[in-house]
Design a protein that fits this description.
Layout lengths: L1 H24 L4 H38 L5
Length: 72
């Protein structure tokens, strides 16, 4: 769990640094670039939320299986 949390923090920091560098070095206008970055960020957050929801459903199914009474 700690490794996964560290990995997600690394992705977030990498995305933040990358977007800052892109803003500083981009040949496009700042407003257009910010709009594109905003769209990409929203798409990324949507993908993360979808993955989290899928994992939550999977884990709930496993939990229900473990909680089910066992027959001997």
């Amino acid at each position: 769990m700690r490794r996964m949390f560290g990995f997600l923090i690394g992705i977030f920091v990498g995305a933040l640094v990358g977007s800052t560098v892109a803003l500083l070095l981009a040949p496009e206008s700042g407003e257009r670039l910010r709009g594109e970055l905003r769209e990409r960020g929203q798409g990324f957050m949507h993908d993360v939320q979808h993955a989290a929801d899928s994992r939550k459903i999977e884990l709930r199914g496993r939990l229900e299986t473990l909680r089910a009474p066992r027959e001997f």
